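As agreed, record passed on underneath.
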Amino acid sequence: MFLRCESTTAASILGIWHVATDSANRNESSDLSGKRVALVGKLAGMTRREVFAALRQVDAIPSEKLDERVDLVVFGEDDLTGISDPAISTQLQAKAAQGDLQFISETTLWQWLGLIEPHQKLHRLYTPAMLSDLLGVSQSIIRRWHRRGLIVPARQVRSLPYFDYREVSTAKQLAAMLASGMSPDRIERQLSAISQYLPDVQRPLVQLSVMVEGRDILLRQGEGLVEPGGQMRFDFDREEAEEDVFQVVDPGNDQPETADQWDARAADYEDDEQLDEAIRCLRSAIAVGGPSAERSFRLAELLYRAGYLDGAIERYHMAIELDPEMIEARANLGCVLAESGQLVEATTALREAIEVYDDYCDAHFHLARTLDELGRQREATVHWEKCLALNPDSPWADEAYARLYPDEAS
């Protein structure tokens, strides 16, 4: 798609952008190899650095300058208001008129790079480990939200869930509730009460407008606010000592009888950061209900968090024996082995995770780190590149980029 620019005003630039966007459907693919590419305006889908890294992957040449050497101009879809009048020079207009310069929209570039299908909006997928790093909450909390259906994966590879940007937004809301002082159990009770009050609403955080006030989740209805049970909220300054139907229940002294009851008791202690008690309860669940990959994995996580690295390693091994395709167990085993100084063994575990699923960004990231620590930079480069290619927007992208392009990072 080639355009002749009749004006260099901001309005004409916006006009070019609209034409570029309208023409996206007619540009199904393009070979970017060897082309010099410049960006105009603010991008919605990636940072400029991330785009430059993606362009290098296809042998294109990113250009910081919009000059006569450029072959392709990409218009960002987020904001063009800051573009100066001479952004598209007379020389560039002439080059476009001769058919030697191409203008495309940001979405078209994502399609050409193979990041999205035609007509599909750009989105990134996050593993539990990525969400944990992004939100600053433990992976066990992320998995609990997943088990409870508070966040729903866009796709699942074997036992590994991947969450898209909509679920990341929901997870951010949940993390903000935790930060406000609400416990995971309290959050779930209040959301459940909202669903009971509005039976057609299964996911209040996604389907409704809610806010957090103190330790309560309130539903916006018209000009007012409604408590989870349906009562209108009029007094916004009530004391915390007031009776609260959503008070977190103490685990109590009743002895659990079934494996599921021991599981639930372990989760209660874990929420309260009583890790040794949680470990005891989870061991009891395994004793009553028998070992399973999921219980062994959860126990390994608890043992690691409590500082029992050797015990965690053994339980990760057990989880893998029970389910050889449990990718997270293999990757986490590699991380704990690396942390305990067993670097060679760690690379083996991480490579095995990649053998099960080659597109597991987490495993490539930690393997690259471990190989760098072993002084095997050439091998590490392959996995840094793979990590960026799989998810240039991950919480670890900055480190990967800095390892691959130290001169630019500095």
About this structure: Confidence is low (pLDDT under 50) at residues 1-29, 80-86, 118-123, 234-251. The first strand starts at residue 36 and ends at 40. The chain has three domains: 10-112, 128-226, 291-409.
